[in-house]
Write a structure and sequence with these properties.
Length: 133
């Protein structure tokens, strides 16, 4: 035999209990009893810990991907700068103005190409295998 318990609820919480009971075609007492049993259940802490662990695992994987992507970016930039410094000869004073103008034109083309690639992909990191360090 069940015993009676009288409780006071905030109006919003009471409306939520009533709505839940109506949707599931059960009494308010059944909803309250299930909620209290869940709250007092010894495995509640374990479920919360499991949920937190899953979230931490997901965040760890995201951080590892960010680390990998930053590493790829740094290595790409370093490789480009090294190649550019090795292969680009010094210019005379007379040809520097023309070289600046041509460099600006090429840079604008690069920015446009980068914008197109970022808009429709694929990304460089998607072209590389996951196990690249």
């Amino acid at each position: 035999m069940k015993e009676q318990l009288s409780i006071y609820l905030e109006p919003d919480l009471l409306r939520a209990v009533i709505a839940y009971a109506d949707r599931h075609k059960v009494s308010k007492s059944v909803v309250a009893e299930a909620a209290i049993a869940s709250f007092l259940s010894p495995d509640t802490a374990e479920r919360q810990e499991a949920a937190v662990t899953r979230r931490l695992d997901r965040l760890t994987r995201q951080l590892q991907r960010c680390e990998r992507d930053i590493g790829i970016s740094v290595e790409t930039m370093a490789l480009f700068v090294r190649f550019w410094l090795i292969s680009t000869p010094s210019l005379s004073e007379a040809s520097q103005a023309a070289a600046r103008a041509k460099g600006l034109e090429r840079y604008e083309g690069f920015v446009e190409a980068l914008g197109r690639r970022l808009a429709k992909g694929p990304r460089l990191r998607q072209e590389l295998p996951e196990d690249v360090e």
